Amino acid sequence: MITASTDDLLAYLADVIEVVERFGATVLPPNEGEEVQWAREGDDLVMDIGTRLPTPRGSQDVDLVLQERWSPRAPGQWIRVEYGYDLRDHELGYRRAFHRHDADHFVRAWDVATHEHCEATLGYPVCGHYAGEPAADAIDGFLRLYGIWLANTKPDCSKFHRLG
Amino acid sequence: MERLYYTPREVAAALAISDDAVLDLINRGDLPALRVSARVIRIPIAAFDLWRSGVTPRRRRVATRPASGTVTIGAGESLPEGARALLR
């Protein structure tokens, strides 16, 4: 888990958008303007950034969504409690994702707080959850998924360790 | 299948500079690139074209606002079967 001050989180979101755009991806509405926002949900701050990767002309869309939930830890201090970094390649028709949510359930079942998704055919998972490396932050999640897309080939989900 | 990236050597040829100079640009964080392994580096074509054109993303203002809806991370995903059994 990572922690941050409120100022850190404001700068962090600007950093994330900057990396996304440096890699040629497009930030989708409602965050395409001059101001990007953390949404306040109850006591939490939530990131929900949709991006579209720079596909060649005539290709179908490739969407990469970055979501995080941060909860207050102390006044002005936050802890990242959930994330979902999700790649859907509609051109090749696959999905890859790095997730952390419902951590208590996953720890009870498999002793892991994070998991991955792999659908070699989009919408048809052979296995619901795979083990994987935790993503350090949204920039790490974005770059890892961007690298998967860059290979321009469907993932071989059979090489991942199945959780169930 | 269309390739979406250049190798450092291809970028060096395009810029008429040495391979080492390309690696310097990458290591300084100037040229966007992805390190696939210790020896393999890929430069996305879209990122390279943007960099070469001199376009740099504008730094955004960041604010907080009340949520207009609820974001559910992992929406529609089934929880582990094993965990369900433990919760009974």
Arithmetic mean of pLDDT of chain B: 90
Radius of gyration of chain A: 16 Å
Percent of residues in β-strands of chain B: 15-25%
> How far apart are the first and last residues' alpha carbons of chain A, in Å?
24 Å
Q: What percent of the residues of chain A sit in helical stretches (DSSP H or I)? A: 10-25%
Coarse shape of chain B: extended
Largest interface: A-B, 50 and 41 residues
Strand content of chain A: 35-45%
Q: What sequence of helices (H) and strands (E) makes up the elements of chain A?
A: EHEEEEEEHEH
Contiguous low-pLDDT stretches of chain B (5 residues minimum) are: none
Architecture overview:
The complex is a heterodimer of chains A (164) and B (88). Chain A has helices at residues 6-22, 103-110, 138-150; strands spanning 3-5, 26-27, 35-41, 44-52, 62-74, 77-89, 94-100, 115-119. The two termini of chain A are 24 Å apart. The longest helix of chain A is centred in the first third of the chain and has 17 residues, at 6-22. The mean pLDDT of chain A is 96. In chain A, strands 1, 2, 3, 4, 5, 6, 7 and 8 form an eight-stranded antiparallel beta sheet that branches. Chain A is of the alpha+beta class. Chain A is built from three helices and eight strands, in the order βαββββββαβα. Chain A is flat. Chain B has a domain at 5-52. Helix content of chain B is 36%, strand content 16%. Chain B is built from four helices and four strands; from the N terminus they run E-H-H-E-E-H-E-H. Chain B has helices at 8-15, 19-27, 45-52, 81-87; strands at residues 5-6, 34-35, 41-44, 61-66. In chain B, helix 1 (8-15) packs across helix 2. The longest helix of chain B is centred in the N-terminal third of the chain and has 9 residues, at 19-27. The model of chain B has no long low-confidence stretch (mean pLDDT 90). At the A-B interface, helix 1, strand 3, strand 4, strand 5 and strand 6 of A face helix 3, strand 4 and helix 4 of B.
